[in-house]
Every structure is written in structure tokens, then in C-alpha cells.
């Protein structure tokens, strides 16, 4: 969703907890998983429609100003008179390690089902709907309900003309997808978890969710297990089980940090195929900030889908976008530039 982020980094090695002021570097920037992805998708040449809520405050006005500069449609944003714009503040030590974060995300509750159904026509006509897990579970269910009911080809996306992409965001929030009623899940096509989020989804589905009470699990398996999964039985188990408990799922884009991404997709026969794509090859000195890199990776992958690119080309485009985010102080760089080889 949409929020402003603040990062404070201590300059001294030790902090004294006695009320004194510590010299720090403070950076404020627009953020939020879905907002970052919308900005990146816009800068990749597409025209996203952003559904979210902001407060009538300084941060909300700044987010609106940023949208205006990008020539991105703001007409569907909800302006709250009662809640402040979401904000997250992280405190880092002098090594760049996060000590803790503070967040005020109450406004996300205003992105409710009534607001979603007011924009039903937009969702019905969208080739891709991107959800992050910051919104209430009922909101996730409403988006999936609309997209499940209106699955007609709109864009030439290989094997999946209308898709919903779910970004789990973090371990606890990732579980929300398991509370969505079974009948709304056929539109869920892509998820982009890390290994801990994937574990959380599978565990929750197996123990408590409506997903685990589906009529029957899908019989999905690899025709031949690829080497990279033979070497990682935990990943093999989790990926296979995730496809079983989320039977309409078309692909898992597993993010692995410095090890790149693993893309596993389901053929029409139900057989699974998987490949790995390496992380950006950057020196430690070239990396300015990791914030937003994963969102830019997802945006690049989605851009590739919209262009009808191959799986490998989608992964390559996503990785190239992540590389440029890593080299920028901003969550999303001012622009994306690609060489002829890319």
C-alpha cells in the first residue's frame, strides 16, 4: 500500500538510552510495497491504476505530488479525513543493521471491501491485479472475488490472460491468503514470497485455513526434479505443497536475496517446471540501498508478462530492475535504462 518511510542511521557505535540526542543521518522517501511496484511499473512504460488510501496531511500531499510528477492517475485514491497517511520508521545502527521499526498503518483498514467494489469495473478490465498483504483479509478476498468472476482474455499474457499477483510482504501477513474463502481463489495466479513467507503460507494452509479444506488437493509434481531443487529438499517440499494447497496457482517467484530468484511454474498438464536466475552482479561498494529492490524486481517481472516475454526474459528484466534499485538511494530509481544486451 502507500506510505512514507523514514530511515534513521546512527553515526556513533554505541547508543545511550538516557534521553540524549544522537547524531544520525535521516532519510525520508515515499514507500509501501504496492506503491513502489506501481511507480516502477509506470516507469517501465505501463499505465497502472493505483487503489489505496492516504491522509489529508503533509505525507499524503507529498505522495500525491509524486504521482503527479510521474503523470500517474490519482483519481481513484481514497482521501481519509480521519486517519493519517501510513508511515514506517526504521532505526539502523552504524553498520546499517536494522535495530527495530515503528509503523502507523491504521489507514490500511480503510481500504475495505466497499472501496474495492466501488472500483469493480476497473478490476474487471485489468489484465493484472497486484495485491500486497498490508490490506485486511476481507479486502484481499474482495479483489479475488471480482477477478475470479471476470476471467476473460484482455491481454496476450501466455497461459494466464487475467491474473492476480500476491506479494506476501512479511511472514505474519503472508498467512492472510490462507483465510480467503475457497471459492475466491481461482484468480490467484502468482505469489512472490521469500522462503520464510512460503513456509508460513504452507504451514497456515495445512493447519487452519479454508484452503486446507478444499474439495481435494491438486495432483502436481515435477516430471523430473531439477538439480537446484534436488540440492534443496526443503524448497522442493514447500514449493510442491504450495501448489497443492493453492490449486489455481500458476507460478511462484521465490526471492532468495543474494542467491537471486527461483521461478517455478505449472504447465497445463499439471507438471511443474523450475529454473533459477542469479542476483545482480554488483560489488558491495555499488550497493547504496536494498530498500525497494524486491518491489522493482516484481515490477520488472510483471512488465515482462504484459509484454508477452518468455519466463527467462521476465526474470532477466526483473533482475535488471532490481540491480538499478540497489544502486539508487530511492526505493525506485528515477528511471530504468537497459543496454542492448538486456
Notable characteristics:
4-stranded mixed β-sheet; UDP-N-acetylmuramoyl-L-alanine:D-glutamate ligase; alpha/beta; 7-stranded mixed β-sheet; single chain; metal ion binding; Carboh/pur_kinase_PfkB_CS; hydrolase activity, acting on glycosyl bonds
Question: Describe it for me?
Answer:
The chain is of the alpha/beta class and 342 residues long. The protein is 33% helix and 20% strand. The chain has helices at 33-43, 58-69, 113-118, 120-125, 137-149, 171-174, 195-207, 227-230, 233-245, 293-306, 311-326, and strands spanning 3-10, 24-31, 53-55, 78-80, 86-92, 98-104, 128-132, 163-167, 188-191, 221-222, 251-255, 261-266, 271-277. It has a seven-stranded mixed sheet with strand order 7-8-9-11-12-13-10, with helices on both faces. Strands 2-1-5-6 form a four-stranded mixed sheet. A two-stranded parallel sheet has the order 3-4. The two termini are 30 Å apart. Residues 152-161 have low confidence and may be disordered.
The gist of it:
With 342 residues, this protein is an alpha/beta fold. The protein has a single domain (33-83, 108-326), classed as Ribokinase (UDP-N-acetylmuramoyl-L-alanine:D-glutamate ligase). It has eleven helices and 13 strands.
Question: How does the SSE layout of this entry go?
Answer:
Blueprint: E1 3-10, E2 24-31, H1 33-43, E3 53-55, H2 58-69, E4 78-80, E5 86-92, E6 98-104, H3 113-118, H4 120-125, E7 128-132, H5 137-149, E8 163-167, H6 171-174, E9 188-191, H7 195-207, E10 221-222, H8 227-230, H9 233-245, E11 251-255, E12 261-266, E13 271-277, H10 293-306, H11 311-326
Parallel strand pairs: 1-5, 3-4, 7-8, 8-9, 9-11, 10-13
Antiparallel strand pairs: 1-2, 5-6, 11-12, 12-13
Amino acid at each position: 500500500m502507500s506510505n512514507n518511510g523514514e530511515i534513521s542511521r546512527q553515526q556513533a557505535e554505541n547508543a545511550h538510552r538516557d534521553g540524549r540526542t544522537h547524531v544520525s543521518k535521516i532519510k525520508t522517501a515515499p514507500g509501501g510495497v504496492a506503491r513502489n511496484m506501481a511507480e516502477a511499473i509506470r516507469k517501465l512504460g505501463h499505465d497502472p491504476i493505483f487503489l489505496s488510501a492516504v491522509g489529508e496531511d503533509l505525507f499524503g500531499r507529498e505522495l500525491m505530488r509524486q504521482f503527479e510528477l510521474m503523470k500517474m492517475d490519482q483519481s481513484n485514491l481514497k482521501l481519509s479525513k480521519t486517519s493519517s497517511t501510513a508511515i514506517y520508521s526504521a532505526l539502523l545502527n552504524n553498520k546499517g543493521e536494522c535495530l527495530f521499526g515503528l509503523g502507523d498503518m491504521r489507514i490500511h483498514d480503510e481500504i475495505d471491501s466497499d472501496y474495492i467494489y466501488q472500483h469493480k469495473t476497473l478490476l474487471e478490465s485489468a489484465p493484472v491485479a497486484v495485491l500486497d498483504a498490508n490490506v485486511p483479509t476481507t479486502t484481499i478476498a474482495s479483489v479475488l472475488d471480482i477477478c475470479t468472476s471476470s476471467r476473460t482474455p484482455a491481454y496476450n499474457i501466455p497461459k494466464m490472460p487475467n491474473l492476480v499477483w500476491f506479494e506476501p510482504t512479511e511472514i505474519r501477513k503472508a498467512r492472510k491468503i490462507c483465510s480467503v474463502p475457497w471459492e475466491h481463489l481461482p484468480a490467484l495466479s502468482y505469489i512472490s514470497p521469500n522462503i520464510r513467507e512460503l513456509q508460513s503460507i504452507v504451514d497456515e494452509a495445512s493447519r487452519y485455513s479454508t484452503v486446507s479444506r478444499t474439495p481435494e488437493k491438486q495432483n502436481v509434481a515435477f516430471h523430473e526434479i531439477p538439480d537446484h531443487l534436488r540440492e534443496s529438499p526443503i524448497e522442493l517440499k514447500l514449493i510442491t505443497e504450495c501448489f497443492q494447497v493453492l490449486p489455481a496457482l500458476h507460478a511462484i517467484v521465490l526471492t532468495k536475496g543474494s542467491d537471486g530468484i527461483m521461478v517455478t511454474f505449472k504447465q497445463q498438464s499439471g507438471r511443474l517446471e523450475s529454473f533459477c536466475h542469479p542476483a545482480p552482479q554488483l560489488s558491495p561498494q555499488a550497493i547504496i540501498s536494498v530498500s525497494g529492490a524486491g518491489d522493482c524486481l516484481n515490477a520488472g517481472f510483471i512488465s515482462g508478462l504484459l509484454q508477452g516475454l518468455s519466463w527467462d526474459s521476465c526474470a532477466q528484466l526483473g533482475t535488471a530492475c532490481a540491480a538499478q534499485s540497489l544502486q539508487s538511494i530511492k526505493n525506485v530509481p528515477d528511471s530504468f535504462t537497459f543496454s542492448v544486451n538486456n
